[in-house]
From TrEMBL:
<dbReference type="GO" id="GO:0046933">
    <property type="term" value="F:proton-transporting ATP synthase activity, rotational mechanism"/>
</dbReference>
<feature type="coiled-coil region">
    <location>
        <begin position="49"/>
        <end position="101"/>
    </location>
</feature>
<comment type="subunit">
    <text>F-type ATPases have 2 components, F(1) - the catalytic core - and F(0) - the membrane proton channel. F(1) has five subunits: alpha(3), beta(3), gamma(1), delta(1), epsilon(1). F(0) has three main subunits: a(1), b(2) and c(10-14). The alpha and beta chains form an alternating ring which encloses part of the gamma chain. F(1) is attached to F(0) by a central stalk formed by the gamma and epsilon chains, while a peripheral stalk is formed by the delta and b chains.</text>
</comment>
<keyword id="KW-0472">Membrane</keyword>
<dbReference type="InterPro" id="IPR050059">
    <property type="entry name" value="ATP_synthase_B_chain"/>
</dbReference>
<dbReference type="Pfam" id="PF00430">
    <property type="entry name" value="ATP-synt_B"/>
</dbReference>
<keyword id="KW-0138">CF(0)</keyword>
<comment type="similarity">
    <text>Belongs to the ATPase B chain family.</text>
</comment>
<dbReference type="InterPro" id="IPR005864">
    <property type="entry name" value="ATP_synth_F0_bsu_bac"/>
</dbReference>
<comment type="function">
    <text>F(1)F(0) ATP synthase produces ATP from ADP in the presence of a proton or sodium gradient. F-type ATPases consist of two structural domains, F(1) containing the extramembraneous catalytic core and F(0) containing the membrane proton channel, linked together by a central stalk and a peripheral stalk. During catalysis, ATP synthesis in the catalytic domain of F(1) is coupled via a rotary mechanism of the central stalk subunits to proton translocation.</text>
</comment>
<dbReference type="GO" id="GO:0045259">
    <property type="term" value="C:proton-transporting ATP synthase complex"/>
</dbReference>
<keyword id="KW-0066">ATP synthesis</keyword>
<keyword id="KW-0175">Coiled coil</keyword>
<keyword id="KW-1133">Transmembrane helix</keyword>
<dbReference type="GO" id="GO:0046961">
    <property type="term" value="F:proton-transporting ATPase activity, rotational mechanism"/>
</dbReference>
<keyword id="KW-0375">Hydrogen ion transport</keyword>
<keyword id="KW-1003">Cell membrane</keyword>
Length: 182
């Protein structure tokens, strides 16, 4: 057998020969694996760990921000609902005030209309009274005119009492009965 260290069965009957070269090769391989582990740790594992740590921190930060945003949204919603209720109350108050103002204006307009109607009726009554007075004056004028005509006729005709009564009766019939009643 040659100097091959990897022999299936060693010359002395062992499965593999544990010689110094094998131990040296094993030690060098172990050191290489350790150095490779350290090198990979600095080149790959630490950056990956840092990236994972940053990602975990970002996720935690995003989660906290989401919780804060959710709390703020809840607070804003409560504030909005309160403002909405206040707006509804204010709208109701404005409508109530508008109704009261409308009722007041309606009452005022009705009172003004009643007062105007009373003034119109009063003016009509005054005008009717003036017209009545005017008609009465005209009737008096006509009576005076009739009396003067009668007096001139009486003087022109010296008539007796019977003719005078007939003349008065005739004049009264011409003027009508309604003239004396008003």
């Amino acid at each position: 057998m040659s100097g091959n260290t990897f022999v299936a069965i060693a010359a002395d009957g062992r499965l593999f020969g544990l010689d110094p070269q094998l131990l040296f090769d094993a030690a060098v391989t172990a050191v290489n694996v350790f150095v490779l582990f350290l090198l990979l740790t600095f080149i790959l594992f630490n950056p990956v760990r840092n990236m994972l740590k940053k990602r975990q921190d970002k996720i935690t930060s995003d989660r906290e921000n989401a919780e804060n945003d959710k709390k703020e949204a809840g607070a804003l919603k409560a504030e909005y609902e309160a403002k909405l209720k206040d707006a509804h109350k204010e709208a109701e108050q404005i409508l109530s005030d508008a109704r009261k103002t409308a009722m007041h204006n309606e009452t005022k307009i009705i009172d003004e209309a009643k007062a105007e109607a009373a003034r119109i009726i009063e003016r009509a009554n005054v005008e009717a009274e003036l017209e009545k007075q005017k008609v009465a004056d005209e009737v008096k004028q006509q009576i005076v005119t009739v009396a003067a005509v009668m007096a001139s006729k009486l003087v022109a005709r010296s008539i007796d009492e019977k003719d005078s009564n007939a003349l008065i009766e005739e004049t009264l019939n011409e003027m009508g009965e309604k003239t004396w009643l008003s």
